[in-house]
Automatic annotation (TrEMBL):
Taxonomic path: Eukaryota, Metazoa, Ecdysozoa, Arthropoda, Hexapoda
Cofactor annotation: heme b
Superkingdom in the source lineage: Eukaryota
Key words, A-Z: Electron transport, Heme, Iron, Membrane, Metal-binding, Transmembrane, Transmembrane helix, Transport
Protein name: ascorbate ferrireductase (transmembrane)
MF annotations from Gene Ontology: metal ion binding; transmembrane ascorbate ferrireductase activity; transmembrane monodehydroascorbate reductase activity
Gene name linked to the record: LOC114331599
Length: 225
């Protein structure tokens, strides 16, 4: 087998894996959202919080992360500039969804005089939400990194953006994971369905950040070389 043939086979494997990832992502989101739409009043604060806060991370932020991987099948023909704009749009919509979802929940708790942010699920969600704004700011800095090179190296800006994004996503998905056993979801599914959904969320989250972790590792090496 020639080296070129090995590259083609490896690339095809990456494309196939990426296609499987998108299928797993679609199944995970489809089932979670189906339960939300089926079981909740679509005008209720509970539905808006569950739907928007969940969708902010899976699929929106997950797709924003995997967009830059070379094997991402739906962006193969896009140049880096287009990918950058799509990435920014996905993350911006994600931040808006997370913000509305959390604000709706805060308003709802105020109306019922319920305590705020006392569970680990809520605390992690709040932490991720705060990091979302740092993520947006650092994303804007990466756009103008070349113009700011006299003040800070573009590599440092990119690395900071990636680390904040990774922390924001992991924290938010963990909050989502802890939220699934709550009454807004778990009471409408079987125990096996809940376990399967939690497992799929973990798979999607880990798969989404593999490329980012590799990029962070390489950029850290470049900082010290």
């Amino acid at each position: 087998m020639t080296e070129k043939s090995e590259v083609r086979i490896r690339q095809r494997f990456y494309w196939l894996s990426n296609t499987i990832f998108h299928q797993v992502l679609a199944v995970t989101c489809g089932f979670i959202f189906y339960i939300f739409f089926k079981s909740h009043d679509l005008t209720s604060a509970r539905f808006l919080h569950n739907f928007l806060a969940s969708g902010a991370y899976i699929p929106l932020m997950a797709e924003g992360f995997i967009l830059f991987t070379e094997s991402n099948v739906w962006s193969l023909e896009a140049n880096r500039s287009i990918k950058g704009w799509v990435h920014g749009a996905l993350l911006s919509i994600s931040v808006i969804c997370a913000s509305v979802g959390i604000i709706v929940e805060i308003i709802g708790k105020n109306k019922t005089s319920s305590p705020h942010f006392y569970t680990l699920h809520a605390k992690l969600g709040l932490a991720s939400w705060i990091m979302c704004f740092t993520l947006v700011l650092s994303g804007l800095l990466t756009v103008y990194a070349a113009k700011l090179r006299n003040y800070v190296k573009p590599l440092y800006i990119k690395l900071f953006h990636e680390i904040v994004g990774l922390a924001c996503f992991v924290t938010g998905v963990y909050s989502l994971y802890l939220g699934l056993p709550k009454w807004g979801f778990a009471m409408y599914v079987t125990a096996s369905e809940l376990t399967a959904t939690k497992t799929l969320v973990i798979i999607v989250a880990v798969w989404s950040i593999l490329g980012t972790c590799v990029s962070i590792f390489n950029n850290i090496k470049n900082v010290f070389t």
